[in-house]
Predict the structure of Putative membrane protein insertion efficiency factor.
Amino acid sequence: MKYLLIGLLKLYRLLISPLYGQVCRYYPTCSAYALEAVQVHGSIKGSWLAVRRVARCHPWAAGGVDKVPPRRTRSPRPPAPVADRSGSPIHQQGA
């Protein structure tokens, strides 16, 4: 699905977007934003970000630079404490 959306967005940018000229109030343009959002976040979240962006793009919008938010990465969990045979945790020194 992701690659289908990317293909459709690239086709839109190639064939339809030039007909409108420079009318977008934001940088990057809405189609470039949508393409990057789908590439970075996948088809579902990227599409949601693109729809939100297009909804903000209207004649009364202030415009400006609006970059795609970076993909959040999960922080690794701290290691579980190691227990000895009696069940009490072993504390490691110097680590």
Summary: The chain is about 45% helix and 5% strand. Helices lie at 2-15, 17-20, 30-41, 43-56. The first helix runs from residue 2 to 15.
